[in-house]
Amino acid sequence: MTSPTIAPPGVSAGREQRVLVFPSRIRPEGIDRRLFFLFSMSQVEDVARAETVRPVPFAPSHFAGIAQWRDRILPVVVLEQRLGWAGADLPDHGENRLVVVRTKGEEGYRRVMVRARSPLEMIPIPEPCRPAPPGGWLSDPRLIRGIYEWEEGLLMVVHMERILEEKEG
Amino acid sequence: MIKLLLFTAGARRYGLPLERVRSIEKPDALLPPEPGRGGAGGITLDGRRIPLRDLPLLMGGPPAPRETGEGKMVLVDLEDRTLALRVDQVDGVATVADDRITPLPDLLGERSRACFPRVLKGEDGPVLLIDPEGVEGLSPPPLPSPCTDPPGPAAGEPKDGEIPWGGRLSPLLEAGRGEEPGPARSYGPAERRETGEMDPAVRDLENGLLGRLSTAEGAERVDRLIRRLAREAAGQSLSRLKRSLRGRGLGEEEP
To answer: pTM here?
Structure first.
């Protein structure tokens, strides 16, 4: 018996609901399928070109730096680095975009930019889309809200609030 | 409107409120680094010793081209003292509207915010504005011995914005600072430093010559040394060096 088809967390399972999907830059050890990140449209405010990301010395390693967006300065987060995948700190020669993501903070909403590798796709909620068990390749499952089987690989919904929490240690 | 002094350090641009700048000097009166402080030396001005912070070294990032010479010293006024900041080049003064300056986002961490509490929304991208008081307390983070670092593109070919290669200088500088050598490392025991057979780079480290060089000269020399050690490690020259040292009774014994 297969798991029921459900909508990922934060995504209403309505008709023609669309989500943003982009591939992970890294395929962690222990996984043989392609990995994609999924964000709901309620999270995404914009997708910008990764023109000038200014590194910030002494910032946590999962921040690539800061970038300007609509007259604001936003931190640029590298999900693969935060998830602790080997090689995530190496230069990325692929074409990049910055996804402006709105997330809840301690004092209301806040925005960050997520470094994303092309192609970024706006797609209807994939069906079938079934929950997948977290694998050993996830060093900190708390950072993930869900993993879903998809015909092109695995879809991951990250827990942005926890991603942005200060790392312990 | 606010006037900012813009300068380059480690191939990246930074800014500083001009009102904090006392003067800009040529680095012709460098003093050796202070013991125990990475990249921190001093200069003399009017007979006074002024502490120095080497920004390209402290901030990491890709090394700046050195053909411009030894860079400049920006002297800044703190509350009751003066601090010298070594930079690669001074780019000029910009007058910007107050609303072009914004706080650094909280998520970047306390240490970053202490050094760069504000950001200029520049035409070519963000420019970090330095707080001299925050920079005054900086020293490069300690890292493991360079001999145990995995050789990678960062040491041989620094990539823009990705690898804080400057941080790797710390153990080398620490190894060479002061009269007393640091603890023995895998490249040879310190008590054998008198030999003329030892690899010159290792001998320099163990004799503490780097600590007696001026900051600018030392930085260049360490830069070359890092590249060379990385190449040697990649080509297993380091193994040959260790075998050679062991053959002369200078290195560790085979397990």
So the answer is: 0.66
Judging contacts by C-beta atoms under 8 Å, the chain A residues touching residue B169 are: none
Place B68 in a pLDDT band, splitting at 50, 70 and 90.
very low
- Nearest chain B residue to A89 by CA distance is B162
> Locate tokens 């010479």: which residue?
B69
Q: Please state, in angstroms and rounded to a whole number, the distance separating the CA atoms of residues A155 and A37.
A: 6
Question: CB distance from A67 to chain B under 8 Å?
Answer: yes
Which residues of chain A have a CB within 8 Å of the CB of B128?
54, 56
Does the model's ipTM exceed the 0.95 cut?
no
Phi-psi region of B96 (alpha: psi -120 to 50; beta: other; left: phi over 0): beta
When pLDDT is averaged across residues A118-138 and rounded to a whole number, the result is 78
The answer to whether B97 faces chain A, any CB pair under 8 Å, is no
Cis peptide bond upstream of B65, omega within 30: no
3-state secondary structure of B129: strand
Q: How far apart are the C-alpha atoms of A163 and A79, rounded to whole Å? A: 8
How many Å apart are CA B83 and CA B87, to the nearest integer?
13
Partners of B124 on chain A (C-beta within 8 Å) are 52
User: How would residue B121 be classed by pLDDT, with cut points 50, 70 and 90?
Assistant: very high
CB pairs under 8 A between A and B: 74
Cβ–Cβ < 8 Å for B43, B50: yes
Does any CB of chain B come closer than 8 Å to the CB of residue A68?
yes
Q: Which residue has the higher pLDDT, B66 or A167?
A: A167
